[in-house]
Amino acid sequence: MGHHQPHALVVPYPAQGHVIPLLELSYCLADHGFKITFVQTDFNHARVIGAASAPSPEKEGLTDRIRLVSFSDGLAAGEDRNHLWKLSLAIKNAMPSRLEELIRHSNEPGEDKITCMIVDGSLGWALEVARKTGLRSAEFWPTSALTAVMIMAIPKLIQDGIVDEDGVPMKEMFQPCPGLPLMNTANLSWNCFRDAESRKKSFQRLSQNNQMRHIADVVICNSCQEIELPIFTHLPRIRPIGPILTGHRLGKPVGHFWPEDTTCIDWLDEQPTNSVIYVAFGSFTMFDQRQFQELALGLELCNRPFLWAVRPDLGAIHGGAEAYPRGFRERIGSRGRMVSWAPQQKVLAHPAVACFVSHCGWNSTLEGVRNGVPFLCWPYFTDQFLNQSYICDVWRIGLKLVPDEDGIVSKEQIKSKVEELFLDEGMKARALVLKDFAYASVRKGGTSFENVKSFVDALRS
Ligand code: UDP
Hints:
Elements: E1 7-11, H1 16-31, E2 35-41, H2 42-51, E3 66-71, H3 84-106, E4 116-120, H4 124-133, E5 136-141, H5 145-152, H6 154-159, E6 173-174, E7 183-184, H7 196-210, E8 218-221, H8 229-234, E9 238-240, H9 263-269, E10 276-280, H10 289-302, E11 306-309, H11 328-332, E12 336-339, H12 344-348, E13 353-358, H13 362-369, E14 375-377, H14 384-394, E15 398-400, H15 411-423, H16 425-442, H17 447-460
Parallel strand pairs: 1-2, 1-4, 2-3, 4-5, 5-8, 8-9, 10-11, 10-13, 11-12, 13-14, 14-15
Antiparallel strand pairs: 6-7
Helix pairs in contact: 3-4, 3-7, 10-15
């Protein structure tokens, strides 16, 4: 160990699915004796503090080892933070100099010297800050290894004529790596935005990011060897350290942007084992009003207990608002429960939950996997289509919900796929096997457990 206590500057991409796992990784490092400075945008910092329960020192961002700090994201108040490439450009301009300042300031006498950086895989510019300030750095992908590796492979995809210089597919199918099934190029993460400009800007940003990658001393991802074996066999540079056990830090902020409605756990306690459909679409997905209502009617039609996380803006495409079909609440009564933000970790671990209607964000995917819960997949954008392929085509623990010619997933389809999933015992059995793999990897002697140790050592030395 060096002269100083190890002190990591942790920089997540400012989105919910990045802040949660990076904060949990921070707690994990704190358990290994690190001090942590966790950097967020002012906007998200305020949300995390606002959403945290019970007043406590943690609420002010002062855990014993973890310090939360925040900077402006460079956007004006009221600008749309869901506009991902604009947000990405703004932080790339606004944040590097602030990070450098923070690091240099930490070198002054009496300060806690920052000794290393952990940088989100999509923030290559932050690795440049590590290089300039002479810090060791790790790149962390809160995605599957497959998603990360496809982004790293952009130059090769262009060279092989699979996508063009703007990331637009030239071939329909290709093989991402030996041992994995053929993949549709439309499912590459940058091609999953709905408008062409976002696809192009996202591709450009990821390509630029790639140019900084060599700076990182270590590249890790929130996955485990057993669930993505072909990738780790063929591309050993990225090491899996997951599934990181998010959300199990009692009384500590784990980075949620919305307050969790924990009353639904009492409701779950009253439901029979293996009976409840859990429905949640992460932090970005939006539906137009027609689809939102069709989904509500589909859940009604299933005639089973359900718990549905209805974020305040879930039904907000085209300026709509959450509006349930007429009489919906009365008809479902206590059979269905809607909350604005669920304690998802606890929900998925609950024995009453039978299946997960999910947008297949990577965190949600891993959380379902590590609880042995089969899926109904309804991807929205970015890497969610790749994750759906893992769930349905590789692991075979879920079914796809597919929009019809009108672009709508009908209530009848929802009902029939739910029924099919409940009847398919093979699906559940495979989900339980995968759960065991996931746990084995993080237990003493497991691959992720060992990878955490070597990652921690690499940053400490
Ligand atoms: N989440 C939650 N309550 C909800 C919905 C989501 O706690 O009602 C959490 C979920 O457990 C996961 C994260 O929010 O850790 C969402 O990340 P994911 O990668 O699944 O999706 P994203 O929000 O990035 O689309």
